[in-house]
Write a structure and sequence with these properties.
Helix content is 23%, strand content 36%. It is an alpha/beta fold and 240 residues long. The protein has five helices and eleven strands; from the N terminus they run H-H-E-E-H-E-E-H-E-E-E-E-E-H-E-E. The strands form two sheets. A seven-stranded mixed β-sheet has the order 3-2-1-4-5-11-10, with helices on both faces.
Length: 240
C-alpha cells in the first residue's frame, strides 16, 4: 500500500494520545514482569518507548516507513529496536509479551491475519501473553464515522478540512476512505484502508488454530468481562 503522508503522521499522536489503552498495556507488562516485549504495528512508537525499562528488550515493528521515521525521532527512541515490516519481519524470539494496539488487528486482512498469528506463536516464549484489541462488529462503529459535512480544524500544517466515506463489502470488511485537504496549499491527501471486523468467536477460533488459548476477553480498558454488548474487545491469549 502507499505510505502515509508525513503531515498526517505528524498529527497522529495528537489524534491518538496516550490514554487508558496504553495504561492497560503498560500494566500488563508490569504484571507479567515482561523482559522481552514486541509491539507489532507500533506506528509512531508513542506507546512503544514507554515500555522501555532497565533489563527489558523492546522491539517495534511497523510496515510504514513514515511512521517509523517519526518513531525514531521521538525521545527514548534509542531504547527500542525499530524494524520495518510485518509479522514476517519479527527479529529474534522468546518474547514474553506481544501486543498489537490501536486496532492493528483490523488492519490485517485474512489470510494475512492468520499468518500473523502463526508468526507470533513461533516467537512466543512459554507462558507468554499476546494482547490486542478489536472493535465489536455488532456495534457497527463505521456507521458513526461518516459525517454530513466536512470538518475543519487548525493544525501545525495550517487549516485542515477532513471528511470520511465508508463502503461495506460484507463479511465484516469495511473500506474507510479518508480525505484530508490542507487549505494552505490545496493539497488533498486521500487514504483508503480496508478494516476487518471479526466477532469474538471468530478471533477465538483463529487464535486456537495458531496455537493460542484465550484466557480473557475484556469489554473495556478497566477489564470488565466482555458480554457481547460492548463496543470494544480486548484479548489476552497464551501459547498452548
Amino acid at each position: 500500500m502507499a505510505d502515509y503522508d508525513a503531515r498526517i503522521v505528524d498529527l497522529y499522536d495528537g489524534d491518538n494520545p496516550d490514554g487508558p489503552d496504553h495504561d492497560y498495556y503498560r500494566a500488563l507488562a508490569a504484571e507479567r514482569g515482561a523482559r522481552r516485549i514486541l509491539d507489532l504495528g507500533c506506528g509512531t512508537g508513542i506507546l512503544t518507548v514507554t515500555f522501555s525499562a532497565p533489563g527489558r528488550t523492546v522491539v517495534g515493528v511497523d510496515p510504514s516507513h513514515a511512521m517509523l521515521e517519526y518513531a525514531r525521532r521521538r525521545p527514548g527512541a534509542d531504547t527500542v529496536r525499530w524494524v520495518h515490516g510485518d509479522g514476517r519481519s519479527i527479529p529474534g524470539s522468546s518474547y514474553d509479551l506481544m501486543v498489537m494496539t490501536g486496532n492493528v488487528a483490523q488492519h490485517i486482512p485474512d489470510p494475512d491475519w492468520e499468518q500473523t498469528l502463526q508468526a507470533l506463536r513461533q516467537v512466543a516464549s512459554p507462558g507468554a501473553v499476546l494482547s490486542f484489541e478489536s472493535r465489536n462488529p455488532s456495534a457497527r462503529a463505521w456507521e458513526s464515522w461518516v459525517q454530513d459535512e466536512p470538518t475543519t480544524r487548525e493544525t501545525a500544517h495550517g487549516t485542515l478540512t477532513e471528511w470520511t466515506e465508508v463502503d461495506e463489502l460484507g463479511g465484516g470488511r469495511v473500506v474507510l476512505h479518508s480525505f484530508n485537504r490542507f487549505e494552505a496549499t490545496g493539497d488533498l491527501v486521500e487514504e483508503e484502508v480496508l478494516l476487518t471486523f471479526r466477532a469474538d468467536e471468530v478471533l477465538t477460533q483463529q487464535l486456537a488454530a495458531a496455537g493460542f488459548d484465550v484466557r480473557a476477553i475484556w469489554g473495556d480498558w478497566q477489564r470488565t468481562p466482555f458480554d457481547g454488548t460492548q463496543r470494544l474487545m480486548v484479548f489476552e491469549a497464551q501459547p498452548v
